[in-house]
Structures
1.
Amino acid sequence: MSHFKGHEQTGFGGALKNLGMGCASVGGKLELHSASQPRIDIDRCKGCNICVKHCRHDAIHLNENRKAEIDYSKCVGCGQCVALCQYSSAVMGENDTSERLNYKIAEYTKAVIMDKPHFHISFIMNVSPECDCWNHNDAAIVPDLGIAASFDPVALDRACADLIIKAPILETGNRLSDAPHHDHLEGCDKFHLMHPETNWQSGLEHAEKLGLGTQQYELITV
């Protein structure tokens, strides 16, 4: 069972993300994040200290110019600073991409479910912009859309994504409702709007190539 939501590195987190990342060993989780150490765009950094306060690994500090700096000997690439930064100063490093992380997640998912019976349920409710692993988040971006289920995790993720893309924006002061002309965002790719440097389609395409399922689906309403 998975909570479907946005994600700052993969675009969204659904069945594949929870299987590939959630079922990985500790060593596997470190491998999945190993190339995603972020960097600081100094010109955008305001020295607000938020990333410093919330880094669980004490890997960020402000230098003499009150600009954030990352100690890569301590950084585990968890991406919390990327999720927290309000000024787009903390960004994914050049050594990793959203596509590469999504490829890894698809491959880990295949290892998890290979030769095993599996059935997947996703809760498309309280669809928050960020991953659930943080102790903070923004307001939900769309109304609760219900629960979806499938034997095919790829089709399930695609169906959930399509439902959210088609849904209207909630008027609750979330990051999308504050966007210009947000009344016209119904039917747009909300995941890319929230996290422009991510590419959620890449994970589904790679999972499909690996034989994990298909992006083609029939939506049956119960």
2.
Amino acid sequence: MTVAVSADSIVASEVRPEDLEQYRRQLTGYCYRMLGSVFEADDAVQETMVRAWRNLDGFEGRSSPRSWLYRIATNVCLDMLRGRQRRALAMDFGPAGSPESFTGDQRPEHTWVSPMPDARGLPDDSDPAELAASRETIRLAFITALQHLPARQRAVLLLREVLRWQASEVAELLDTSVASVNSALQRARATLAARNVDREHEAVVGVGQQELLARYVDAFERYDITSLVSLLHGDAVMSMPPYDFWLRGPVDMGRWFLGQGSGCRGSRLVATAANGCTAFGSYRSDGQGGHRPWSIQVIEVAGDRIVGHHNFLDTTLFTVFGLPARL
């Protein structure tokens, strides 16, 4: 009879490089929450794996391979965050604008929180309750709020409240005391509470939400802006990184789509999932019978209305999301 052995129980002499690969997905989710960038998360995980492979002979088995990898990943992220400006969304940089106030000013890539494909950052074998909790900790508002925490507080909060590690385990990983971990966690919680990240929104799982998103796709592709804005919450927001600009409310969003945003007329949407939400690859007409990548739309829903319409205009994200280079 064959007995399955958990990788966490493998002794040091039995750990092989391929044993470490099973942790890549969960490490990517952790590093993304730490760094706020899918590109930097990939770099951090790759550096973690390289360091682990190089030091495999020195792994003495005093902790599980998983704990060892998280220690390396945390140190990699702390190094990457040293002296860095925090990432954010447009709503952090100033008040809402109007369609007429758009200037085209942009901020550099390192300024922005970027979207993460669910398939890269969420567990693929969790029960529904665990998956729902994981979605909440990868949504854009939460990731953006995390960027306000000092790096070590960020790590403590993620390890304790997202990964559910014991305070003693976190203290060992960070080479500090349990009291220090508990203090950092309290300060991190207070900062997040002040950022008001508990605004309710829903992962798209119910029939009502699915119908809402289907109506949105139909309205957007027909460019029926009257129907589209009827799907928006009265306090809905729209952002368009890298543009240093955002809008609030159906009226201004409708005016945008019929004005400066009218280049989206004739677009096509391809469904995907990002940050625990339904998302779309938005393709603009190329004028030659096809469609070219334009933006990754992350659509946030609360109840029966759309509350967030975030458009990331970095077309290199299409490769990250596994989306076609052209329609």
3.
Amino acid sequence: MFAKSVNLASKDLRLVFLSGNGFVQAVLLGFLLIFVFSIAGSKGAEPHPRWISAIFWLATSFSLVLIFNNLYAMEEENETRQGLLIAPVPLQSIWLGKTIAGALLLLLVQLLFLPAEIVFLDISQASSWQGIFLLIPLVDWGLVVLGSLLGGIASGENSRDSLLTIIIFPLLLPLLLAGIKIGEALLSSGGGEQIYSWYTMIIAFDLIFTGAALILFPFVFSE
């Protein structure tokens, strides 16, 4: 199952990088959000760590929608969705392949966002870069798990973009709130024991929605 998922992810990544669709828009949208919010702050004042963290995760969440819209739209545009459905592979492997591809694309987008935030929002004084690089994959896990599941639900719909956007953001609120709170602590001198509960929330979110996606995806994607 995992090998087939990796093959599907490799195919999707090749198509994304050859066409540039989805990925380029996600990067440009993120840069635009970071730039606009950087000039919206008080002139000459140092941005608050919570503000910086919120901008990063806001740009990430909008990029997530564009990435998974594109990953699932490729099958619709090329009329290969039925081929995936009748292929001799578990439907969960399709979800896992899309999740792997989306995770790699999202991580690459975020690696471009970080230098942009350093330039425009001055996050060079972060108290724990190790904590930041641990936080990002933990939050990304929940983001891509849910993004891939809801991308499967929205696939085949004429209103795919709006449907995915309407559904995903309310569900992501606890995860994004935890990411913002921990990011604020890591970007300042705060932190410590008060952020452990937020880490617990992130891990619980990741595990719950991973299990839900594995169970629900075969039903929602085959409809």
